[in-house]
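pipeline stage [seq->struct] | target=D-3-phosphoglycerate dehydrogenase | organism=Mizuhopecten yessoensis | residues=533
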Amino acid sequence: MSFSLSSVLITDEIDQKCVDVLKNNGINVVKNTKLSKDELLVEIAKYDGLVVRSATKVTADVIEAATNLKIIGRAGTGVDNIDCDAASRKGIIVMNTPGGNTLSAAEHTCALICASSRHIHQGDRAMKGENWGERKKLMGSELYGKTLAIIGLGRIGKEVALRMQSFGMTTIGFDPIIPGSVSAEFNVEWMALEAIWPKADYITVHTPLIPQTRNLINDKVFSLCKRGVRVINVARGGIIEEEALLRALESGQCGGAGIDVYSSEPPKDFSLAKHRNVVATPHLGASTVEAQQRVAVEIAEQFVDLVQGKSLFGAVNAPALTNAMDVNTQPWIELGKKLGVVAAAVNDQNKEFSVALYGSSLGKSAGSYMTAAVLAGLLQNSSLLGAGDSSKLNLVSAPALAKQYGINSKSTYEEAAPAPYSALVSVVFSNGFRVSGTTSGGQALLVEIQGQKFPSPACLCDSVVVFRGTSNPQLIPNVAGALVGAGVTVTSLNTSLETDGQKWGVATFATPPSESCLEALKSLVTAARLIAF
Ligand SMILES: NC(=O)c1ccc[n+]([C@@H]2O[C@H](COP(=O)([O-])OP(=O)(O)OC[C@H]3O[C@@H](n4cnc5c(N)ncnc54)[C@H](O)[C@@H]3O)[C@@H](O)[C@H]2O)c1
Ligand SMILES: O=C(O)[C@H](O)COP(=O)(O)O
């Protein structure tokens, strides 16, 4: 896979090291952190790469205006400031630097837990106001022996657990993906959320902001918690419902909060940040010299690795493209695309299909990239694609465009492949049409069309003629003779087993023929398509 990048725009405060790494690898860089939205809409068209933190909102209109953009890099973790669906529809890769700021965000969380338990913020305010008398109002509580509930046991949640255990806190937690056996390895007892609420003295959230986590901590949850529970949010504003938190702080049901992130940034309303029992910071979780240098270098190196064809590490919207860089997976992705192209050429109902994967060498996880590959093939010559869409069709945009056009796909997996193949891919449409293939020596081979198997699989080379004809001993010699007569050099001719007196056939060529060669077949076959992959 080749990927070129000529000029990158950086619109947020990102460490100089990002600029240096990109420039040292021959990529032009412009850093402008002062662009208004209107200016960004004009500027963005000049660049094929964009690097942001959380301040720049890469909305659908920015992506629409980004006529040359190929990649958006997030120097950090959360990509919720980027419209990833809009980017996917335009075939634009979105990548982040997962892990580069994990330790800083974890340390900041621990700092907020400590500050909240000992009223550090209130004490500091009192001292600055020369108000020593505040001292007697600021009785804190020890963390030792208290229970810390961690919602989201990914990178940051785990690091918070390990650090707060050294204070003698008991750590419990919930994550729908991380099982109890894994969380037990870092001494977090996994519990269902209902069991967590009444046990927790402190609750810290470390999830992405997604529909399932929006307002996760709300009035109802506060009512199920211990009176005086303290909550911390260094993840995303909106995971703890801000109005519910204010109400719980006012009633004393919540004893204090440490908040780094807000549902709108900067907040439209500072009531929460100003509350006496809230220690508030302006989204500082990743704001350390170390984290900023790390994410700056990582995003730049990830861009360079992609240009050099080494890896697509950090891509969040391109599972198929990521796999397309693996030499073992590449032939399967090519096969998927070609099966999609064949299906689009000879089957007239392509809106609903399933990709059936067979063989342990493919594995269940192949479903996401093989489905994307088949979709890319199906859409390649489709009239569904608008003019703008067809130039953007790739393994990133195919699933997003298919969704837009109402094409539904799913995948299934079985460990055992039908003999004689060790691995096989079948694309099965809702009208019963089925096309199957495998790979050998890096080549895509057609094994079956419409349930009719090829005793000897047909190569899906650069261009082929796929035809259907009445089964008679003269079919192959007649088709071969007609093609030779039309001036094309046939390199192979394979036919399937027959069903209802009909056979499928595939012809391959030394050099791609023109569409006119099909004229020669008209009287010999019931259907023929020239397919250029
Ligand atoms: N404040 C900051 O400056 C700062 C810095 C870095 C990261 N972050 C944010 O912190 C959050 C966590 O980052 P991370 O690197 O640990 O991510 P991660 O992907 O490693 O972990 C997130 C975890 O949340 C879990 N999760 C998803 N849905 C859940 C649900 N409904 N309930 C419970 N858990 C759920 C996931 O399974 C995953 O394990 C993200 O929102 C990220 O954007 C903030
Ligand atoms: O998701 C992240 O990486 C953090 O929220 C950091 O955001 P920032 O890069 O704007 O500090």
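stage status: PASS
auto-comment: Residues 172 and 188 are 5 Å apart (CA to CA). The chain has a mean pLDDT of 95.
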